[in-house]
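> forwarded from #structure-qc
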């Protein structure tokens, strides 16, 4: 329900308040409240929010269901979520989503990111599969061009789903013992730093114990706990929900997704199990 405008950018030239216009750069502002979202070069052409909604409608017309529209970082980034068909799994199935995002501050291009969610715990396993999980989207204006871009994105989703399914089956067929879990956590995932600082050592040991407790006790891992799939999901659950570090986070889950942050430990757990 708002658009962005490019407006002239000025700089103060003297103590008397003389201002000079900044050449080749403009500010991007919101039409509803005037908030400045960023500074861009003069050639920058914004992709208005209605275009994001139109492209989302095109995706839905091909395959999927609209799930959400929203904004983050005061509107610097806007996004839509499209739900794709679920992936079957022995622990309740996986939801697959497309998050289509655009930035109004010039920080990133229009893109679609695949996100897999385990329904048993709603863990966001972002890019758990090793297949490409982000697709860049071209600026388009015609319905035909939008449809072509939508088909390109959804073609990649087929590869992503296949790769995720294969990875899940590989993890399910890999046994994990308590000794394995302890070694993965204490030697690699949350290893003690090289320091004599007792507080740092205590905090690290607390994280190690929290993660191992999540793996050993989480109710939603029944039936898969002693597999690589169970262990990786325990790491994701601790990373997203049960760890004491979670309450200190400044970014919400969508902001972390848009910043492509916070999933390194899940990927590391995946690689350790399959090594």
């Amino acid at each position: 329900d708002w658009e962005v405008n490019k407006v002239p950018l000025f700089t103060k030239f003297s103590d008397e308040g003389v201002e000079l216009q900044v050449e080749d750069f403009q500010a991007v502002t919101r039409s509803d409240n005037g908030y400045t979202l960023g500074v861009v070069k003069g050639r920058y052409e914004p992709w208005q929010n209605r275009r994001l909604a139109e492209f989302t409608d095109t995706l839905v017309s091909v395959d999927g269901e609209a799930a959400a529209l929203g904004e983050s970082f005061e509107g610097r980034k806007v996004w839509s979520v499209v739900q794709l068909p679920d992936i079957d799994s022995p622990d309740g199935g996986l939801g697959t989503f497309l998050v289509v995002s655009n930035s109004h501050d010039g920080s990133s291009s229009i893109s679609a990111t695949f996100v897999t969610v385990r329904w048993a715990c709603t863990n966001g396993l972002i890019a758990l599969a090793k297949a490409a999980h982000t697709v860049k989207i071209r600026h388009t204006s015609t319905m035909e061009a939008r449809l072509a871009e939508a088909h390109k994105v959804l073609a990649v989703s087929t590869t992503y789903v296949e790769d995720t399914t294969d990875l899940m089956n590989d993890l399910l067929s890999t046994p994990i013992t308590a000794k394995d879990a302890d070694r993965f956590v204490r030697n690699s995932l949350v290893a003690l730093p090289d320091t004599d600082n007792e507080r740092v050592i205590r905090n690290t040991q607390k994280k190690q114990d929290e993660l191992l407790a999540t793996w050993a006790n989480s109710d939603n891992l029944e039936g898969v706990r002693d597999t690589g799939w169970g262990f990786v999901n325990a790491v994701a659950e601790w990373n997203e929900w049960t760890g004491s570090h979670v309450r200190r986070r400044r970014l919400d889950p969508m902001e972390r997704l848009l910043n492509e942050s916070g999933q390194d430990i899940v990927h590391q757990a995946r690689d350790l199990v399959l090594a």
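QC bot note: The first strand starts at residue 4 and ends at 12. The mean pLDDT is 88.
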